[in-house]
Structures are given as C-alpha cells and as structure tokens.
User: Which sequence fits this backbone?
C-alpha cells in the first residue's frame, strides 16, 4: 500500500488559509525550500566536486571562508531575491545589509547559509538557519533591524541529514523530513519533553574553564545528572535539544588564559543564529536568555552581525541559569 505523507507546502497552504493570510509568505518559503534543496545537493556532492575546502578569503567576522559558505550564500541570495518578497536580507557571509525588493518586498530575512563550518571538511552535519520579520504595512517602513519577538517565523535545515524545523509565531514548532523526491514531508509538532530523563547539556567543553564561575559551578552540579553532547553545529546540537530537552549553551568567554581571546559577548550571532533557535525553542515551550539572564528574543539588534551569549532549552534549566546570572550581576 502506497503511503503519501503531507508535504510542507500543503501544511503551510492550509495554515495560511485557516488564518486568512496572503500567499506572499508561501512564495517566500517556497524560495527558501528551493535554496535548501540546492545547498543539500552541493553539500552531498561536495567531496566529489572538491568543494569542501577553503575559498581563500575571510568574512566580516574575520573567519576563513569556505567554498561551501560562498556557494550556500549565493544559492540563498538567488532564490530569496527572486521571490520578490524580500526588502532586505542579512547574511552571515556579507558585511552590509543586502537590499532586494525595496518597493514591493514585505519581509526581512536574516540567514546563515552554512552554519557549523568545522564540520564542512568532513561532510558532517551543518545547518542553514533563517529568521523572518515583516515590514511595517501600516505606516512608513523604518527598515530597522528587528528583535526576535518580532520574527514571524524562524527555521533551520540540518544538511545533509534532511530535516527541516520551522516555528511560526503563535502556531508552534514543526519538524519535517526530506523524502525520496526531495519534498519535506510529515509535519510533527515539537514540544520540549517535561520529563528530565532524556535531557542533555550541549556546549563546547574545551571552553568550560573560560566560563563565568557561577556557570562553571552550575555545570559541575548538573554533570552528575545529564549527559553531554556536542556536534559543533548549532542546528544539529539544537535539533537534539528540541527532541530530548535540556540546554544548549554558548556562554560568554570571560576567563580565557589569553585575555585577548575572551569573548564577553559570546560567539554566536544574534540575528541569524541565537534568535532563530530561541524563537523555535519558545514556540516549543522552552526559553532562552543571554549572559545577563535577559530573554534573547527581547534584544533589539544594534548591528546586523551582533554577537550574544546563548542559553536555550527547557524552561526550568533556563530559569535556573537566568536567576544565577542575574544574581551574579546584582
Ligand atoms: P559558523 O560555522 O557559521 O561560523 O558558526 C559555527 C557556530 C555554531 O554552529 C556552533 O554552535 C559554534 O559556532 C561552534 O563553535 P565552537 O567551535 O567554538 O564550539
Ligand atoms: Mn554560523
Ligand atoms: Mn555560516
């Protein structure tokens, strides 16, 4: 007996119609899916093509650019730009905000086309992360950078695993799987498990000694209880946390033996990494805060490539961390 799973597009069409929405968002999402499939293809064939190495330049963050970073960025820019629905894009790979359809565009997109670069030479999982906000349709558009609580959707593809997770504002967090004809199918609602039995902690343990003391103590207390898991690609690490519960943390680096290597603002980028997973997590019943214990989604970006420390996952753990961080500051 053949079995036909519901596709992402059918799911979204139904959602838009149920809420009396236009098709503009559907058209934008279609372009994002086209981009993801194309990136998936380039990544799966990357080792054979010889495109998993360095591109020979550095990006706005001063990091070495990989050929795959460039390919993925070009792919996203092409598809999202030709959807005609985007005013401005922010890409991890481009210093300046990218103007698209300034007159007719309705959305802002903030994206990291290839996240988890240390996995690229090994062809291991990476992510394509994006957040979407809407232009001001009721008055003049001020083109400011939006805080996470203003996103209307945020999602991530884990590549080449073939999973796609998308959160829609006030409509939950959903996971899809790629099928044999490259459709994302089988919507499953993601809700963080309340039972701590499966919870995990995810962080780079090589950095453990560089975290603020109360965070180090908290980890020591928790390590008896929870397993540690770390892939080094936010999309993959957060994918596990969404399923199993627990906490992903990339704290501020404040005790590095070489003080020049401290990162008091953390490593992850607010608009297209931290706010994206935090938005998904909140729609799945979780929570997310920064190094001050303040909600990630309430941070209004001052610049497109701003960094933040990140604690994201099950509410009880985020609440514990948040009160520890607030106490340390008072
Ligand atoms: P990018 O590859 O886009 O520069 O970002 C990698 C990010 C993120 O995916 C991951 O969680 C984190 O950096 C890993 O950093 P460490 O290698 O410092 O653990
Ligand atoms: Mn990244
Ligand atoms: Mn990247």
Assistant:
């Amino acid at each position: 007996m053949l079995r036909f799973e519901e596709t992402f597009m059918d799911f979204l069409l139904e959602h838009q119609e149920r809420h009396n929405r236009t098709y503009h968002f559907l058209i934008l999402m279609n372009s994002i899916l086209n981009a993801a499939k194309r990136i998936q293809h380039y990544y799966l064939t990357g080792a054979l093509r010889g495109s998993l190495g360095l591109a020979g330049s550095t990006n706005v963050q001063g990091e070495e650019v990989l050929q795959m970073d460039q390919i993925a960025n070009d792919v996203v820019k092409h598809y999202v730009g030709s959807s005609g629905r985007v005013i401005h894009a922010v890409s991890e790979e481009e210093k300046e905000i990218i103007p698209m359809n300034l007159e007719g565009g309705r959305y802002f997109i903030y994206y990291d086309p290839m996240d988890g670069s240390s996995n690229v030479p090994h062809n291991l999982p990476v992510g394509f992360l994006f957040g979407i906000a809407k232009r001001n349709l009721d008055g003049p558009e001020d083109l400011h950078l939006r805080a996470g609580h203003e996103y209307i959707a945020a999602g991530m593809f884990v590549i080449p695993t073939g999973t796609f997770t998308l959160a829609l504002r006030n409509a939950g967090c959903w996971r899809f799987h790629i099928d044999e004809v490259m459709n994302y199918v089988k919507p499953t609602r993601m809700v963080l498990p309340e039972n701590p039995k499966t919870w995990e902690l995810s962080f780079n343990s090589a950095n453990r000694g560089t975290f603020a003391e109360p965070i180090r103590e908290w980890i020591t207390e928790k390590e008896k209880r929870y397993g540690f898991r770390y892939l080094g690609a936010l999309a993959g690490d957060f994918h596990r946390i969404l399923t199993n519960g627990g906490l992903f943390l990339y704290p501020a680096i404040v005790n590095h033996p070489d003080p020049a290597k401290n990162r008091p603002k953390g490593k992850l980028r607010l608009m297209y990494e931290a706010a994206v997973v935090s938005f998904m997590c909140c729609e799945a019943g979780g929570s997310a805060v920064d190094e001050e214990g303040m909600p990630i989604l309430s941070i209004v970006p001052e610049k497109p490539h701003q960094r933040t420390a990140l604690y994201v996952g099950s509410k009880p753990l985020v609440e514990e961390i948040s009160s520890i961080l607030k106490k340390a500051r008072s």
Remarks:
- Residues 196-328 form a domain with the D-Maltodextrin-Binding Protein; domain 2 fold (CATH 3.40.190.80).
- The chain is about 30% helix and 25% strand.
- The first helix runs from residue 8 to 18.
